[in-house]
Structures are given as structure tokens and as C-alpha cells.
Amino acid sequence: MEKYGAGSIVVSDYDPNWPILFSQERTRIEQALGAFALAVEHIGSTAVPGLPSKPIIDLLVGVPSLEEARQRCIKPLEAFGYIYMPQYASWIPDELFFRKGPPGPWTHHLHVMEPSHPRWDARLVFRDYLRAHPDVARAYADIKRALATSSKDNIEAYRTGKDVFVAETTAKARVWRALAEDQ
Predict the structure, then answer these.
(1) 100-133 tens-digit pLDDT
(2) What domains can you pick out in the chain, each with its CATH number?
């Protein structure tokens, strides 16, 4: 069982400072990586206004080459307080994963990947769909709060407990976006 770094999993009410914290961190990442960072996106629940979340800012950084990112990104990001977590490669392949903050509670999660990877699009369309559908975001909040209570400090159970909802919502989000693009 993978334990949550801060003890019990807590889903906090939405904090309007989360977008500000993202913006500040995006600036730091852009300084650290320069033009190698093709895009820096705010993802996860803290990127959806009104959605309760674990108070961790999730960032998605697009790079032209993951292989090159292994050589060019780890040291500059570590200089900004990020800890590279290579052990996560089995759970989230084809990306580099970093955490920032004391050894729990973590304040930031950073995902580095190529924008051509299917997970890039999935994360963005899921976020955008929740932003546009507050009723779906509320349903997601209910699931997250129930999982936080039942999972206690088992972060793997918390993550996998959301899988079906995320997969189904992402599929709906792709249809929603395709319909919007056709108009």
C-alpha cells in the first residue's frame, strides 16, 4: 500500500488562490526550462473553479522529447525544489513525475511529457469538461470526498477509486469537444 505523504487524505474546499499559485509556479518552471517547455498547463482538481481537492497544484509540462527531458529537466527542476520520482514510471509511463514540498504534505505535482502523448489530451479535455459542467464537477467532488474517507492514507486506493469516473467522463468530454469543434 502506498501511503499518502501527509497522513490521512484530505479533500479541501476550493481555494481561489490555487490559480495564483499555479501562475507563480508556471513562471518558475518557464525560468528553469526556458524554451524547452513548450507549454505549462494547470491540471487536476485545483484547476477547476469550485471543485474541492487535495491542496496540491498539478502542473503538466509539454516537452519536445521525453528522452531529452531526462537529460535537460531533472537538475533545473530540482534547483526549484522539485523531487524527481522515477519509481512512478510504472504507474505513469511516458512521463517524468516530480513532487514539491516537504516530505508530505506535498504542495505541487509536476508531470513532464510530450504533448503528442494521449494522456496529455485526456488530462486537458477532462479538466475543460469539468470547468464547463459544474454538475459533473460536483459529482466528482462527492466521489473524491467519499474515497478520501474510505481510503484514509492509502493513496493508491484513492487514485484507483476515481478511475471509472475519470474514464467515463473523459469519453464524454471528447464527444463534447468534437461536437463543439463541428459547430
Answers:
(1) 987 767 899 999 999 999 999 999 999 999 999 9
(2) 18-182 (3.30.460.10)
Per-residue model confidence as pLDDT tens digits over 139-170: 999 999 999 999 888 888 999 999 999 999 99
Give the number of other CB atoms < 10 A from CB of residue 171: 13
In the chain, which ranges are continuous DSSP H helix? 18-33, 66-72, 74-79, 118-132, 134-151, 155-161, 163-182
SS3 state of residue 129: helix
Count how many Cα atoms sit within 13 Å of the Cα of residue 95 in the half-sphere of its side chain. 21
170: phi then psi, degrees, rounded to nearest 5: -65, -40
Eight-class DSSP state of 3: B
Q: Which three cell numbers stand for residue 177?
A: 469537444
pTM here?
0.93
Classified as helix, coil or strand, 51 is coil
